[in-house]
Specification:
Shape: globular
Distance between the termini: 38 Å
Number of strands: 9
Structural class: alpha/beta
Number of domains: 2
Radius of gyration: 22 Å
CATH class of the largest domain: Alpha Beta
CATH superfamily of the largest domain: P-loop containing nucleotide triphosphate hydrolases
Number of helices: 9
Order of helices and strands: EEHEHHHHEHEHEEHHEE
CATH topology of the largest domain: Rossmann fold
């Protein structure tokens, strides 16, 4: 795992400490990831105290950041997690992740547990914070509409393997891998005339402990060939902005069924 040119995989605790300020995470469940015994203000200030910031300064910075994420510190600062709504809790999680001024935020399904209207508010907040603080997001989600709205580059994975990469625009306009195509086809349509008449993908996901040989998607792929079982396909550039790991795009068309 390379961060700012340094392999941080095997660093000691003391060597890792400076990097911890620059790597933060927002978890999927906005309630389970908050300490029920801490007030909201104390929750946001906790990381500052751990890194040696004086208590008064930590509290002041926590209150300022709560205001930035849309929570009145005078109204919400002394409350506990159970007294907030799901969207408010996730705003607290975002404030807690930003309090140390990180460079990179890992967001694991940060809006999947929220209502659609609240999702939009939180996503707009994240977009504003990204531009304001020059942040980099690693945004994990199964919702392609959210991915397309938030991301610059997209990496599609199936059973732990990367199947397609590219810009968000390129993947939305022309998904190449059968799995990516199935993901986009699974998104519900707002047009009542465009009803889904058959499932875009069939079968159940294989056991991740004992995955299929070769291409891991071949057991559910409508275009699977004999060679798909032999070895996993290497990424093939299909455009300057897109690459796909699929034998359908092999440079030797005579080998493609």
């Amino acid at each position: 795992m390379i961060f700012r040119g340094t392999d941080i995989t095997n660093l000691s605790r003391s060597e890792m400490r400076p990097f911890r300020r620059e790597l933060m995470m927002v978890f999927q469940d906005p309630y389970a990831s908050l300490n029920p015994r801490l007030t909201i203000e104390d929750t946001v200030a906790f990381s500052l105290l751990v890194h040696g910031t004086p208590r008064a300064e930590a509290a002041e910075r926590a209150r300022a950041l709560l205001g930035r994420v849309g929570l009145d510190p005078r109204l919400h600062g002394r409350r506990y997690a159970h007294e907030l709504s799901g969207g408010q809790r996730q705003r607290v999680n975002i404030a807690r992740a930003l309090v140390l001024d990180p460079r990179l935020l890992v967001l694991d399904e940060p809006v999947s547990a929220l209502d659609k209207s609240v999702q939009a508010q939180v996503l707009n907040l994240l977009q504003g914070l990204k531009a304001e603080r020059a942040l980099t997001y690693v945004f994990i989600s199964h919702d392609l509409n959210v991915i397309e709205y938030v991301s610059d580059r997209v990496l599609v994975m199936y059973l732990g393997e990367v199947v397609e990469t590219g810009t968000a625009e390129a993947l939305a306009q022309s998904p190449k891998h059968p799995y990516t195509q199935a993901l986009f086809a699974s998104a519900p349509s707002m047009d009542p005339e465009q009803r889904m008449e058959r499932l875009p993908i069939s079968g159940d996901p294989p056991n991740p402990i004992d995955p299929p040989s070769g291409c891991r998607f071949r057991t559910r792929c409508a275009f699977a060939m004999a060679r798909c079982a032999d070895a996993p396909p290497a990424p093939i550039p299909v455009s300057p902005a897109q690459a796909v790991a699929c034998y359908l795009y092999d440079a030797e068309p005579a080998r493609v069924a």
